[in-house]
Amino acid sequence: MIFVSPILVTLLCLTATCVNAKAQYLLETNNGTQGQTDDTLGKDTGTHKHENIETSPRFLFSQQQFAQKKEPPQGAASSASPLEQPLPPPPVLSGVISYGNQISLNGRILSGAWLQQRGKTGSLSIYFSDGTVRQLFGVDFLDSSNPDRQPIQWFSSQTKPLILTSLLTTGYRYLDITNFAKAAKWQMQVANNTLVMTTPSAKVTNIFQDKQLVGTRVIVDLDRPTPWQLTQGLPIKKTQPQEDEGNSPTQLSSSPSPSSSPPNREWVVTLDGIAEPVLVQRYTPLERAAREVGGQDNSKFSSGSLPNSLTPSSSSPPLIQQVEVVNNQTIIRLSIPFGLAPRISTVANPNRLIIEIRPDAMVERNITWVTGLNWRQRFVNLGKERFPIVWLEINPRTSGIKVKPISTTTNSLVGTAPLIQTAQQYAAVAAINGGYFNRNNQLPLGAIRRDGVWLSSPILNRGAIAWNDSGQFYINRLNLLETLIGNNNLQLPILTLNSGYVQSGIARYTTVWGANYTPLTDNEIILVVQKNQVINQFTGGKAGEIAVPIPQDGYLLTLRGNATSNAAALPIGSSIRITSSTAPAVFSRYPHIVGAGPLLLQNRQIVLDAKSEKFSNAFIAQKAIRSGICTTTTGNLIIAAVHNRAGGAGPTLAEHAQLMQLLGCVDALNLDGGSSTSLYLGGQLLDRSPNTAARVHNGIGIFLPLRGVQSQK
Known about the structure:
By secondary structure, the protein is mainly beta. The chain is built from nine helices and 48 strands. The strands form nine sheets. Strands 1, 2, 3, 4, 5, 6, 7, 8, 9 and 48 form a ten-stranded mixed beta sheet that branches.
């Protein structure tokens, strides 16, 4: 390995920059979920603004990798960016002399987990997390049945792939890139928690389009292999057509408006190399406009190369929007129609980046990531439709594997965060988003039970999954039945426990909710219960105005609507107790529960009945990206993300049930979906780019023993 001088290290760190801030776009305005429940009426509105965001699980560059660290304004509270990757836990491995979460790549500070290890012979090895290898350098993973050896392809032959050895520790799988980096002539040096890297200067010698039977492709010729990344950007605003003065509004509205079709989306390919000036000029907007006027533009899609439903109109923007050179990088901006996405591969001799624009961009994979955990992705046919599904199959009987509910905060039930951040906070090796929540007040709307303690109660008899630490699972619809028993044989039903689902009746709040409770509706009557005795009773006033402390050895009861009439029967000093049971009773046997819904399968048969679980008609009919969890005939657990069908939108609930059936599921449950759908593995999202994933309230995490597993070399 070659190390750069300390002077160059300092220079690189001082000149570090980030890519275009546009690439850091977050769905901050879409923190909701499919199962949004109205706070007062309990109606499921089924609202989800970004259900059909396009994703390409072949290779999704993580926006998180380009998180820019900014100092907060003077006087402002300091908080980490939601895109910023936290420092990984200390690797539990012998010989680790440094580790970190930052990589300075040719002067740009990017996020990526790495560690440096000294071997028994004194030699130094550098390891990157596999998400870092894929997302920062464009390395493609090939199928593998051996978790200790990961075949890769990077400007190389797929028939004789390079092999990277692996080790697993604290939620990450690290790949040894020492020899790979030497062959590529990368220079590396450690500076605190930053690994400073430089790669040989590369030139982009040509960029051109090529017609294919399915879609179009862009060929990028290089003089040598170089790192590259793919970023999913924003929808591209359409140019509004000019209206003829003679057209009346009625005439104009009688024909379909071009703006009614989904807009194109920008995708950005970034290479560590400098494009020839003629290429930059060829693809500048002014130069392209001149060619179009002259009838010389050949950069549009060929209509004969796409399915009819995906054929762009004559007014469609060109595929290659712009080529520019910034900070010794070539940035290629693409405009890609809805239903299509880029699939990128590399070849050698000549060195080329091949960008295929396809309706079926996902590359199928079958990787044994670690013993007992397989990463799979493939297209599943349902009639004439093809759905890309990415899933993890976990053998819960494998020694050390545990499954636990995870939530955004540990001392409260209020809050949302990207799943990737929550999973890393818990040091989970894998995770999927869980149940529904209210995006406005960030409160849970369904069952969460962890280690035998109810965090939040189920609602509306919706579907839930329960399990124990022995790898046994149970999926069914669930109710929690709590009853308040007071003096003179008084018995009153408690409708919810620590829930954001609000309706007329009695609700209970424990310290799991947080240190305080703030009324969610006006004029609630609040009872403070300590050691099974009512010690205070008062009216809460307007919603959100006061914070009521929750006693450590008790709880609060809130009486809403018609239930306020019961306050007189529960005066200060009265004794009360709570009885609790589940329906079905078998749920009580399991320490862990996550609720969502609707229920999809039982005993291999479709039992979908979203109406009975109080989901709205709009939600039932909606085509959306979806998450699911199920058990198989072998007793394994599958967590799966189903994305948009090839050339169209995601599955309906009925299609989702059929797809889970085709995956081999026995019992299956629909989880929250749309922009909440997120499938996490070892520091990366497998199914989508993190900048397209909304913040979520809770999830289901997969854990391995907190120890290092060194591969055999």
